[in-house]
Amino acid sequence: MATSSLSVMLTTSQFKDSAERAIAAFCQTLIALVGTDGAGILDVGIADALQASAVAGVLSIVKSYAAVRGPIGGPDASLVDLTPQSDDDLLD
Known about the structure:
By secondary structure, this protein is an all-alpha fold. About 60% of the residues lie in helices and about 0% in strands. The protein has a domain of about 60 residues. Helix 1 packs antiparallel against helix 2. The radius of gyration is 18 Å and the shape is elongated.
């Protein structure tokens, strides 16, 4: 049985970061769609708003996973690498 060097697992911290971002994306999308429906800007039913919000949540999870396992990003689920740099790097 061959072993793969690519790990698909996330650490607990990375999982929590990803879940927090996905829940936030879901809620923000739902509030935006329901709010614009109530203001008469868009005509979106609750079922459509829930579906769009679910897609936003899933895309957030995919983005977080790509940030952790991809060539960019840092050790958390952010696309921005916030790893502290050495003092020597600040002088350049």
